[in-house]
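Morning F.,

Quick status update on the modeling queue. The single chain you submitted on Monday has been processed. Sequence for confirmation:
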Amino acid sequence: MEENNENKKVIDFEFDWIGKDYDKILPNVMAMAKKLLELNQIKVEKELDENGNIKILHTGVCRKNGLVESLSKGIVNEDIYSCVFRTGTKNSLNCICKGRDESKTNYCQMPSCPILAAGYLYYLQHMNDSEKQEIAEFNEEATENDIYSRNYNELKKMEFDKDIEDLLNPLAIPSIKGLRCAFIGEEGTDKEKVTNDVANYLYRIGKISTNKVRYISLNTNVAFEDDILYSIIGLQDYLDNLNNNDDFSGSAALERRNNKFKIQTLIHNSRGKYIIVNGTPLEFKKFLESNSKLPYIFDTAVYFKDFEDEKILNIFERNLPEYHKKFIDDDKRKVFLDYLDRNRKYFPFKNRDLSMFLAGYVSRKSELILPKERYKESTLDDMFKDLIGMNNVKQQLVELNNFLKLQKKLEEQGKTIPNFNLHMMFLGNPGTGKTTVARMVAKTLFDLGYIQENKCIEVESKDLIAPFSGQTPLKTGRVINSALGGVLFVDEAYSLAQSQGATGAEVISTLIKAMEDNKGSLVVIFAGYSKEMQEFIRANSGIQSRIGYTFEFADYTEDELYDIFKLKSDKIGFTIDAGAEKRLREIINFGRNRKNFGNGRYVDNILQKTLTKQASLDLKDKDVLKLTEKSIPTIEEIMTQSSGEKNPNKISELFDEIVGMENVKKEIIALGKYAQFRNKLSKNAENSLPEMRLHMLFNGDAGTGKTTMARKVTEMLYNIGCIRINKLVEVERKDLVAEYIGETAPKTEKIIESALGGVLFIDEAYSLTPKDNPKDFGHEAISTLIKAMEDHKDELVVIFAGYTKEMKDFVNSNSGIASRIGYTFDFENYKDEELYKIFEIKCKKYSLKINKNVKEKIMEVLKYFCSVENFGNGRFVDKLLQEILVKHSMNEKIEENLNKIMVEDIPTIKDMVEKTFSNDDNLVIPADIDNETRRKIAIHELGHAIIHYIYKGETNLKTITVIPEGTGALGYVLHTMPKTKVIYTKRDYLDEIEELLAGRAAEDMFLGKDNVSSGCWNDLEKVANKIDYMFNAYGMSETLGLVSAKNIKPSLEMQQKLDIEKKKTLDSCYENVKKVLQTNKTMFEKVLDTLMKKGTITGEEFAELVKK
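C-alpha cells below.
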C-alpha cells in the first residue's frame, strides 16, 4: 500500500464513518484487523463509490481461510482485492461479499469481518486529532459477558439438537477451552455431519483456527494441537490391531506396542484439546475397555438414534431425480414404508446411507421400483418341514417361540418383563441336527427382535484357545465380539473342560462373563455329547445358572434315517424301488451299530456314494432318476473310496518296480504267499487255524522306502483278501496326539475309525514315546492303538515305522506293542548303484534324457553321500534331481537340450553339502583337499596297508582310497573279513599294534617328525585300548606277571611300573615298524605314486604292485 502507518498523513475523507453503533469486536477478529494494519495491508478510498458504498482495498484473501492462514504466517500478498460495504441507516456496515453461505454468515465463517474492522481502524488513524476519542471507544476490549452473549447467539444460529447444544454451551464462555466427547451411533446417523457443524461453530467463536475437521485413526501417529478439532474414526481397525495376538511376528508385536503408546499419548495430551470420538455403541464400549483411564477422559457421549422410517423416506424423496419425484404420492409413500418395515434390517446400509442407496437404485430405473425383497417370512412350521424326527426338540422350540411372542406383546403394552436367560445347551451325538437347529434358533430370535442380526457364529475349542499363555481370554473375546448381536454356537464344548492347564477354564470364565454382560445382545449355545457335557457343566458353577434352555437330541432311528435319505433324494427328483429301499436299510443298520457312525452325516455319505454309482450305470434316459438295488453301494464302498479290482495272483509282481530292498521284498512276498495259503487252507480245515498277527514294524533310516513298501503291502493284503478295502491311512504324531488332557484318545480313535478295513501306517512312531517325558500324551495314543489292534484285529493292520535304534526303544516302552507285532522288517540304506537306478527311473518318469558322462559325475556325488549319516536315501535323490534341474534351467544351451541332462548340470559335492546340511555337520569336501594334504593321507593309509601285507604274507585288502567320504574320513584302508582266530598270542597283539602305528610311522619317515598329522589320533586310541587289554586282562605284562588287573586294583607304585612297561613296549613296536617301512621304501614309493594318480586302488591292483 502506498501509505506507511509510521508516517501517517491526514486524509481528507469526503464522508463520515461512525463506528460507535457497532457491536463489540471479538478479540480474535480485532487481532486480525490490527495485524492487517500493522503489515500495511489495508487502505480505505477517500470517496464513496458510485453506489454510495465505502470501498476498502486489501491484500488478504478472505475466501476459504486464506486471510487467516496468510496472517498467521505473516505473508504479505502482492495482489490487491477490494471489498464493498453498504452503509445502513446508522452508518453501520454489512459485508456484501459474493461468498456468503446459507446461514447468512460471512463466507470466512468469522463472527464479524476483519477487513471491515481493519478498514475502520485505518479510517480513524488517518483523521485529524479531534477524532481520537472515536478510536479509543472502538478499541475498547469486549467484556467476557459480551463475548459469551455473542458466542451463545452463534450457537443458537446453528440450530443444533438440544443434547449437542447442551454439550457446546459451556464453550461459549471465553475462558473454557477443550472438548472431549464421543458421538455414538450406527452408520448413517449423521455423526460426521454434526461433527463438521461443531467445527464451524468452534471456528466462528474463535476456539479453533480452522473450520475443517481433522479425521484421524488411532493407528496413526498424531500430535494433538490446541486449535484443531479432531475426530477419531476407525475404532474397529484400531481394536483389531491392538488385540491381534495371533500374529507373533516382530512387526505385529511392535505395532501392538505402538498402539498402546498412542492411547497413552491420547490420554496425557488430550487436556484442553478438541477431540470427538466417532463410533458405534459396540466399538465405543470396546474402546473404553482397552484402557481403564479412557472412561474418565471421554465421560461425555451424545447418542445418535437410528432414523425413523419417515425420516428415511424424507431423505429418499429429497435425493430422487426430478423425473422420479413426480411419481411420489401418498400411496407410493405407504408402499415405501411397508417395504422398509419388512426389509430394513436385512440391508447392510443403515439410516441416511440406506436412504441414499435406495434413491440411487431407483434413479437407475425408469419407474419407482425398489430392490428385490430381502425379507423371507418363515414360520417354525415352515422350518420344520425339512427336519426329520426330533419331535421333543420341535415341541420345545414351539414353546420357546410362543413365550417370546407373548413377552413382546407384554412389552408393547408397557409391562415390565424380567430379562430371562436365552442361553442354551444342546446335548446329543454328531449328526443329530444340533447345528441346523442352532441356525433355526438364530433366525427365530432375529425375526422376533431379540438379536440384532440373523447370524450364528459356529466355533469349537481350537477357535477359542490360544497357543500361548495369557492370550486365550483375548482370542475368546474376539470371537465373542464377532458374535455380538447374534448367536454363538460352541460345538464340542466339553473339550474346554478337558483342556490341559488353565486355558479351557479361561475360555469358560470369559464366556460366562460375556453371557452376563451382553445378555441383551448375545445368545450362547453350548453343544456336545450328553455324558461329556455333564462334565462340562460341573467344570464351572456359573454355567448351569446361565443356561435357560436345554435340548436333548436323540440318535435317529432306522426309519428316520431312511426318511432323511428319501427327503434329500426327493428334492433331486429320484424315486426309490423296493430293492433299493431294502439295501439302504441294511446299510443304515450297519452304520447304526458302529461307534460314532454320524447319524445324518452318515446318510449324506450314502447319498453321495449312491449318486456316484448311479452315474456309472449304463441307464436309459427314462431310468436315470430311478434308484434300484444296483444303484445303492455296498457296505465296503460306503466305508471308503473305490478299492479297485482284486488280483489274488498278483504278489511278487507288485514289488518288481521297487529298487533295492531285496531282503525285505523276499520276506514280504513270503508273508503274502503264506497268508494266501492260509486263507485257502482255512476253507477246508476242520478246525480253526492259529491266529495270524499282521501288525508290522518297519525299521530303517529316512528315505529307505518304508512308506512306498507300506503302500505295496496294503495292495498285496487287499489282493489276497486279508483286508477288505485297499486303503492306507498315513499318519504321524501330530495326527494322533492332541494338545490337551483327555483329547488324545478321541483323536486317535477317529484315526483308527478312518483306517478300519485297511492299513494304518504310523511314521516316526517312536515320537509317541519320548524318553524324557513319561507323562507325554503320546503314551495315551499308544494305549488306544494297542487296544484297537486287539479289538479290531480282523479289520485293521497297523504298521509302525521309524529309525532302527529309536524303534527298538519304542517297542520296549510298552509290553503290549511287542506282543502284537507279527512281523518286523529292517530296511537297509541304499547303495550308490541303487540310488543311481532310482535316479534313472525318476528321469524316465519326467521324460528326461541323460547325456553321456553324466553317470560318472552323479555316482561321485552318490558315493560320497552314501556314507553320510541320515543323508536321506531316496529323498536325497529327489533333492539331487531338483538341484540338477535348477542348474539345467540356467544352462545357456537349454533351448537345444531342453529335456537332456548334461554334465555341466550336475552339482558338485560341495554344492550338495551346502544345500543339504548345515555348517555344523563338519563334512569334508573332496574339492577342498589340496594335493599336499592328499599325499599325507596317502602316505598314512599306505603305511597301514603295506605293514599288513608284509606281516600277514598275503593281503585281504579290498580298497585303499585317499578320496574323502561323507563320514568325515579323509581316506581309509578296507579289508575283507579275515578268518576268525580262536587263540591270540602276545605276538599277534603286538603285530596288530604295529599295524595300527604304521600310519604314523610312515608319516614320520616320509614327512619328518615335526610334520606328523593329527589324523593319527584314532589309531593311537585303538593302540592304547589294545595294550590295556594285553597287560590288564590277558596276563601278558611282565610287571603284573600272572595276575589279571581286572580282578585287583594295582597300587600306585605298581601302576607306575605298568605305565613304564607299556611305553617301552609301544616305543619298541614303533621302531620296528619304521625299520620295516625303511627296508621296503622303494615298494612304498611305487605304490604311493599309483595311489596319488588314481585316488583309489583295489586289493588286486595293490597285490600286483607289491609283488613287482
